[in-house]
Design goal:
The chain is an alpha+beta fold. About 30% of the residues lie in helices and about 25% in strands. The two termini are about 45 Å apart.
């Protein structure tokens, strides 16, 4: 690595990571409420640990959200994730569900019912031209690694995989921000006893299994996304190796670097809703606002305005008005209009375009009140369980209205006026 380059790293976690288990349960509750009552007010927090799940928060809904319904939803989510074996300390049939949900304060409702924001706060959106989805490459690759891990696990292709996993990708950038190469990949995956061996009396994940992770998870994802950035070989770095022998361009691969990952999921580490906010957004490349997303209905601008800010930033980059765009909006509780709109393009605006001009275009082309956001992005649908793993941004699913680039043409035309 030369002096004119720098490294940037982002991480992601799998559907079976304890915090993501909590996020998916909270958003499953939200979806159930919105399915039956689109005007539901939901703020659902979940805690999971060894064979235990607590749901707390404030919900006002006409949906039949009985204790039995909550219990059923929790077990359905846990089953779908893949925690079905009680021997690993957390399973759908054995988990104890504690429900302490209650109604939302009427004092919040009186400000929100008139179209105001459900809370104060600042929210950010980000987009850049590093990938086709206009996401930063490190987080894009990290998400794809754990998504492919889940796909292989569910297909039974690597039968020893268990649901908990984490990925991390380091990318080397040139001084001007262009990408030089993929530098390092870390992938930790929970596994069963069949891929363990003993060394000096300690349990270790086998090198044969590490090689399978490299061959069947890491390499296919890197090749599918950016084969041009694979400048050398994938090199296995074994636990405890101070310095693996790497040639220029080789990609260091740390697979289960602690040595063994038998105990995982909510049994290995408790999980909480909203604790993976950087995974949920841009992997640290853009700023994050003051609140998490999962378990919150769209009147909560923590979530809905962050989705709108991504929509704004993505359309600006898609319109080629900037190669990179970060947008901030902020709100006061009960007040509809944003208190500010801020744009930062890191000096990448197109010739003749200014950040001040972009702020004007945003005001002209996007509805930024809570009601305008909800209506523009059609956010009263039961779509949120899909967001609760593999990132809220960068996946162009039909349900993710904030990933559209339908405003790009109008923005480009307006900028020429």
């Amino acid at each position: 690595m030369g002096s004119a380059t720098h490294l940037f790293t982002s991480e992601s976690v799998s559907v079976g990571h304890p915090d993501k288990v909590a996020d998916q349960i909270s958003d499953a509750i939200l979806d159930f409420c919105l399915q039956h009552d689109p005007l539901s007010r939901v703020a659902c927090e979940t805690l999971v640990t060894t064979d235990y799940c607590t749901l707390a928060g404030e919900i006002t809904t006409k949906a039949p959200l009985t204790r039995a319904a909550v219990d059923r939803l929790v077990r359905e989510v846990v089953t779908e994730i893949g925690y079905v074996d009680p021997r690993i300390g957390f399973a759908a049939d054995s988990v104890q569900v504690n429900n302490v949900l209650h109604a939302q304060s009427p004092h919040i409702a009186q400000g929100v019912d008139t179209g105001g924001a459900g809370d104060q706060g600042m929210m950010f959106g980000f987009a850049c031209d590093e990938t086709p989805t206009l996401m930063p490459l490190p987080i894009d690759l990290a998400h794809r690694l754990v998504a492919h891990h889940a796909k292989l696990r569910r297909a039974g292709q690597l039968k020893w995989l268990r649901p908990d996993a984490k990925s991390q990708v380091t990318v080397e950038y040139q001084a001007d921000g262009t990408i030089q190469r993929i530098h390092t990949v870390v992938l930790s995956t929970q596994h069963d006893e069949s891929v363990m061996t003993k060394k000096d009396g300690k349990d270790y994940f086998t090198d044969e299994a590490r090689q399978l992770v490299m061959d069947q998870i890491i390499m296919p994802v890197l090749k599918a996304d950016r084969p041009d950035l694979i400048k050398g070989k994938l090199v296995m770095v074994r636990p405890g190796e101070a310095g693996a022998k790497l040639a220029d361009g080789d990609i260091a691969c740390h697979i289960n670097p602690t040595g063994c990952f038998l105990e995982g999921g909510p049994h290995g580490d408790s999980g909480l809703t909203g604790r993976k906010i950087i995974v949920d957004t841009y992997g640290g490349r853009g700023r994050h606002g003051g609140g998490a997303f999962s378990g919150k209905d769209p009147t909560k601008v923590d979530r809905s305005a962050a989705y709108m800010a991504r929509y704004v930033a993505k359309n600006i980059v898609a319109a080629k008005l900037a190669r990179q765009c970060e947008v901030q909006v902020s709100y006061a509780i009960g007040y509809p209009d944003p208190l500010n709109i801020w744009v930062n393009t890191a000096g990448t605006t197109a010739p003749g375009v200014t950040e001040e001009q972009l702020v004007g275009l945003i005001r002209e082309h996007f509805r930024l009140t809570p009601r305008g956001i909800i209506e523009s992005l059609d956010l009263r649908r039961p779509i949120y369980r899909l967001t609760a793993a593999h990132g809220h941004f960068g996946r162009e699913l039909p349900e993710f209205s904030w990933e559209r680039t339908d405003k790009a043409g109008a923005l480009a035309a307006a900028a020429k006026r």
